[in-house]
Specification:
The protein is mainly α. It contains six helices and no strands.
């Protein structure tokens, strides 16, 4: 398995993520944690709270269509694994998000920017397990 090296696209995408996090903090005083935003859709504090959360989720879902309108091509996402593996991975991520009290976007993008010690620990754990998982899959299992 080869990992694509896309520095310009990554820089552009990362800049948009950072900009959206800053704008959400400036306008609503809220942290741009994707799982927290999604969870708040199902248990909103108010109608206004529900509306901004749905707007963010709809923005995430329509992103590929914006790429299509700009380039004429839909982004290609390939997952070289079974549907069962994707479901198990999703469940494990859900458990990790719950145990870590947040996701990579909340801790990694926003928490580190706010110099949160809890977020630093969470990101170190995320990254450590990511490195270990890639190593095991590529060099032990041979996937």
């Amino acid at each position: 398995m080869e990992t694509a090296f896309t520095p310009l696209q990554s820089l552009f995408g990362g800049s948009l993520i950072g900009l959206s996090a800053v704008l959400l903090m400036l306008t609503l005083g809220r942290v741009m944690g994707a799982t927290g935003i999604l969870a708040g859709v199902f248990a909103p504090a108010s109608q206004k709270d529900w509306l901004w959360r749905v707007a963010v989720i709809l923005g995430m879902m329509t992103g590929p269509w914006v790429v299509f309108l700009a380039t004429g091509n839909m982004p290609v996402v390939e997952a070289e694994m079974s549907h069962n593996a994707l479901v198990v991975g999703g469940v494990l991520v859900g458990i990790g998000v719950t145990l870590g009290a947040g996701c990579t976007s909340g801790h990694g993008v926003c928490g580190l920017a706010r110099m949160s010690p809890r977020s630093l620990v969470a990101v170190l754990v995320f990254m450590g397990f990511s490195v270990a998982t890639v190593y095991v899959l590529r060099h032990v299992v041979g996937a």
